[in-house]
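[worker-b] picked up task from shared queue
[worker-b] task type: protein-ligand structure
[worker-b] ligand name resolved to NAP; SMILES cross-checked against name lookup, match
[worker-b] sequence length check passed
[worker-b] input payload:
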Amino acid sequence: MSSSFFLRNGRSVFSIISGGRRVTILLSGVNFTSRHIIDLSYSTHFMDFKGSSIPSSMKKLVVTKLSQNFRDAVALQTVPVPTPGDEELLVRNRFVGINASDINYTAGRYDPMLKPPFDTGFEGIGEVVGLGLSASARCTIGDTVAYFSDGAFAEYTLIPVNKSVPVPAVKPEFLTLLVSGATAYIAIKRLGDLAAGQTVLVTAAAGGTGQFAVQLAKHAGCHVVGTCSSSEKAGFLKTIGCNRPVIYTSEDLGATLRKEYPRGMDMVYESVGGATFDLAVNCLANKGRLIVIGFISGYQMATGIPAIRAGTLPVKLLQKSASIRGFFLPHFLEDYKAAIRSLTHLLSEGKLVCEVDCGDMAPEGRFMGLESVFRAVDYMYAGKNIGKVVVEVNSPSLDSKL
Ligand SMILES: NC(=O)c1ccc[n+]([C@@H]2O[C@H](COP(=O)([O-])OP(=O)(O)OC[C@H]3O[C@@H](n4cnc5c(N)ncnc54)[C@H](OP(=O)(O)O)[C@@H]3O)[C@@H](O)[C@H]2O)c1
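[worker-b] inference finished, payload out:
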């Protein structure tokens, strides 16, 4: 026998499966037929049908073949809406975030043991529409939550309740904090060793995580140089406090740094890799720290790794007592909640800009619907985005807190 509670049109219904037959007990006067989705679970859980707004099936993106080419790797499928387990939430995704590493994940570079088919997408924000009994101790139907957890590229996603971050509203600004903001915050705090008056270089500065590195370094009292590929991006960087945007497509980055910053950079937040990494190593000041955040210039290659001048690294580091430090967000989860708290606080005080790019200026317009994730990945890899690339998966629900 299994049982479930759910709310429908504001009425409570208690449904029991017994001996293969459903008995629906009406708690407030009108009879409703319960839905099949409930029957699939052996655990007790709560579902919000909001007048049957949870469909029986949904769209999601599934990696069907390992490839760094997102379009080759991923298929749009129609599947049943899943039922939450005891400690899970069923979230109706309103917005999901695009990350440079989405193509590393589809190429199987994160977990070589993971074989297709598997779900994809790292982060989402939306409304809780179903939850397991244990999860109900911490959340309820209608709560707005954000999360950093696998499987976000779907209309509905199951997440462990302990990975949910309560948010006051389903706004894409909160989504920017989950991976991009948290990465910059924790990497700079743990590995940056920043002090006021120091000079910092941020590469891919106008992007999802770069924008936070720029602002957090400014908050630490540093002078910030940021690289970007267009004058629009340079304009944006100025608005968030970047002292010296360098448009590397029209300016020689190495020559500019040598001329304007002969003492070098005390810290580099480096996301591009390859030739940009080499240049960043060359511009380190004595005791400078270079944080390896990523190497996007290689992600579309078969190896995923752009070439660098590795042979000369030891001598360059020794000559400057400089260091290179790697950072990978999942290794710093003990710092995650505090980082989100601090970032949310800065945002609420108006001290943090969370720039969101939903593709309004993209050739085919705003990224709406799950199918536009493909376009959004292409857009990022064309270097077009200013701020965090975000896809609007579902329209607002009728009583959402938007
Ligand atoms: N270590 C971690 O835990 C962690 C977490 C999050 C992100 N990251 C890393 O942070 C970096 C940025 O990721 P994101 O998701 O925030 O992306 P993003 O910065 O929003 O977008 C990527 C940007 O990279 C720049 N870029 C430079 N060279 C490029 C190239 N060859 N191909 C494509 N883009 C290039 C482009 O800006 P311009 O055109 O202005 O140069 C582009 O807009 C990536 O390396 C990513 O792996 C690491």
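[worker-b] attaching auto-annotations
[worker-b] The pocket of NAP is lined by residues 99-101, 179-180, 183, 204, 206-210, 228-229, 233, 271-272, 293-294, 296-297, 327-329, 380-381, 383, 385, 389 (CB under 6 Å).
[worker-b] releasing lock
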